[in-house]
Amino acid sequence: MPLYLNELAPWERKNEYYRIIQLGKNVEEQTHTINMQTKAMIASQMASVNAIIASQERIAEGIDAVSCGIGRVEQGIYELKATFEWGISEVVWQIEQNRQVLKNILEVLMAPLDTQAKERRKRAEEAYANGWFEDAEEEFLESEKLNKFDFSIHISLGMIYLFHKVDKQKALSYFDKAIKYSQPKSAFHASYA
Length: 193
Description:
Blueprint: H1 10-20, H2 27-110, H3 112-129, H4 133-146, H5 151-164, H6 168-182, H7 187-192
Helix pairs in contact: 3-4, 4-5, 5-6
């Protein structure tokens, strides 16, 4: 709160004004006092108006600054969107490239016994091709334990027992299994067995 040490406080000025303006006093002095009081009121009103205008200018500047900031945020969001879309398209492209590989890996993971059976059958076929019929028989039998529905294993065992072990009874048993399991899948292999 201001201290009015060298001047009159506003309420004191008002009292001074009423003391000077009285009937019967000097008209010139009263006119001068009214003139001065009017100028003081106008100055006070102008100060208020200037403060309002200045605050409006500050508000306008603030709004402009906020608007500029919002514009920058909007631009940043658009740039993020573009970057995100590019990044996602890159990820999707990579996934599409690896989809078949992942599908094959999933198939292997979902059927570990089938995978082992295929590996055993493959080794048995290599042994058979090299003339190692004992090893081929052993691998085919292990493969059969893992996947008894693979008719190609039964055909191969039937061939080993018919031509290399000369055990017609076992050969017939394996050919019967080959017919049984191949009929729903392959008429050609069923007729072959």
